[in-house]
Design brief:
Blueprint (H helix, E strand, L loop, with lengths): L1 H40 L11 E3 L8 E5 L1 H14 L2 E5 L2 E5 L3 E2 L4 E5 L3 E5 L10 E5 L2 E5 L4 E4 L2 E7 L2 E3 L14 H13 L19 E4 L2 E6 L2 E3 L6 E4 L2 E6 L2 E3 L8 E4 L2 E6 L10 E3 L4 H7 L3 E7 L2 E11 L6 E22 L7 E22 L14 E23 L6 E21 L1 E7 L2 E2 L11
């Protein structure tokens, strides 16, 4: 009797120790999350903005929606260089622009309330080609509509609108891009020098609307973005970036909201997304180009955003240089999203995804709430460039319903998904609650999928 009682006491204490240990681990994870996030936020300052102002209309611009204002922008940029930097103020009106605006360092483009930059739709106006990338491959292509290369302290602010006006030309190109897309990937895999990767006319690869490439100290704040030719904001190999309070009505083909790629130290906050594709898509180069770049996307804080579009936050599928230290917190939804959090990679990519923290995020009706797959699009299954996906911590994630699946983890036998914690997940309805394949060290606590169970019924 004594022996049996002693055994029961030992088992109870052991169970209690496991529970307390787990609680301590969750507390440790939370402390590490906050400390890591705050140390990153201290690195992010955005652009320094000059106190010297230039009025665009003083350089010949006219906000009548007819006159070509590109020459005025070029003159204003040259004047800013002479002054060592300036804020270029665009007053109320519609400014038609027949070609790309190329930034210089130390310039803030300040779009005042009622000001609209409306770009001409003709593709030939965005030539000659510039250094850029397309779906993770570095090449030379049509210039993004607003473009900066190798700059510092650049910003776009205000309450105005940037209208890509691309619905009649660029947005119709997707069906014709396959040859150019395939050629770009062949050059990527074959190691063709970037200087020889020339696209542009005849290859149908759409340019981004805003791209800062190899830049430091960037602020994008307040403006509305609409009718982009391709991705809306592409942050390529850049760092120290603030995207704050942007507003989207961008529903053309592949109108991603914000695409950080091989970039670091980024704050994305208070954004009103309404996009025809991913809201935030974190990328880090495709295949050989990603491995050669060796520049992971890292230290990215996404908070207090309202998501609406295809997927809210995506990592991949172009992520061969790796993605780490991503924080998604205090976000909600402004409309339908197919997926909430989506990690997508395959054995073509290699690289890694680590230290993803999702905290206090709410969605409405989705197809899948959280989906991580190492078999994206069924591609590369005969390859051996497996991605290491690990250290994912999800706390207080919810949705009203998931028409396909609540929580999905799809690793591979060669490289399982490791160390994932789901805590306080609430899903009202789900066709498939949990689907985990090839995983190691997955924990769930205080999760309710398909509603909470009540008091058990009693026999009568």
């Amino acid at each position: 009797m004594y022996s049996s009682l002693k055994t029961l006491v030992f088992l109870f204490v052991a169970m209690l120790s496991v529970h307390v240990g787990h609680a301590a681990d969750m507390g440790r994870i939370e402390k590490e999350r906050v400390a890591r996030r705050d140390s990153i936020l201290r690195l992010i300052t955005g652009a320094k903005i000059s106190g010297d102002s230039l009025l665009l209309t003083d350089f010949g611009a006219k906000g009548d929606g007819v006159k070509d204002c590109l020459p005025a922008f070029r003159r204003a940029m040259r004047a800013a260089v002479k002054r060592g930097g300036a804020r270029i103020v665009v007053p109320e009106g519609t400014y038609y622009i027949k070609g790309p605006i190329h930034f210089v360092s130390n310039v803030c483009l300040d779009l005042r309330r009622g000001a609209t930059l409306k770009f001409a739709p003709e593709p030939e106006l965005y030539l000659p080609t510039v250094k850029t990338s397309w779906e993770g491959t570095f090449l030379n292509n049509y210039s993004p509509f607003i473009y900066g290369y190798g700059l510092h302290d650049v910003s776009i602010t205000g309450e105005g609108t940037i209208d890509g006006n691309a619905s009649t030309t660029f947005s119709t190109w997707k069906a014709q891009q396959k040859a150019g897309q395939a050629r770009s990937r062949e050059m990527n895999h074959g190691g063709t020098p970037v200087a020889e990767r020339n696209f542009g006319e005849g290859w149908w690869l759409r340019p981004q609307m805003i791209q800062f490439y190899g830049c430091k100290n960037i602020t994008l704040e307040g403006v509305k973005l609409t009718n982009a030719p391709f991705w809306c904001v592409h942050l390529l190999k850049s760092e120290n970036i603030i995207c704050r309070g942007l507003r989207y009505d961008a529903k053309l083909v592949n109108n991603d909201g914000i695409d950080p790629e091989c970039s670091r130290n980024i704050l994305i906050e208070g954004i009103e997304f309404d996009n025809g594709d991913d809201n935030v898509a974190i990328k880090a180069g495709r295949d050989n180009d990603g491995w050669a770049a060796a520049a992971p996307s890292e230290n990215i804080v996404i908070r207090r955003c309202r998501f609406k579009g295809l997927h809210a936050v995506v990592i991949g599928s172009e992520m061969s240089a790796g993605v780490r230290n991503v924080f998604v917190e205090d976000c909600t939804y402004g409309g339908y999203c197919k997926r909430g959090i989506y990690i997508k990679t395959n054995p073509d990519r290699g690289g890694f995804v680590s230290n993803l923290y999702v905290n206090n995020c709410e969605f409405g009706d989705v197809e899948d709430l959280f989906y991580a797959t190492s078999m994206y699009a069924g591609e590369g299954m005969d390859n051996d460039k497996f991605t290491r996906v690990s250290d994912i911590y999800v706390d207080r994630l919810s949705c009203r319903s998931a028409s396909a699946a609540g929580l999905v983890l799809q690793g591979t036998t060669a490289e399982p998904i490791r160390r994932v914690v789901f805590s306080n997940v609430e899903i009202g309805k789900a066709v498939n609650a949990v689907s985990f394949d090839n995983t190691e060290g997955v924990e769930l606590s205080n999760c309710h999928i398909g509603g909470r169970a009540g008091v058990p019924s009693q026999a009568k």
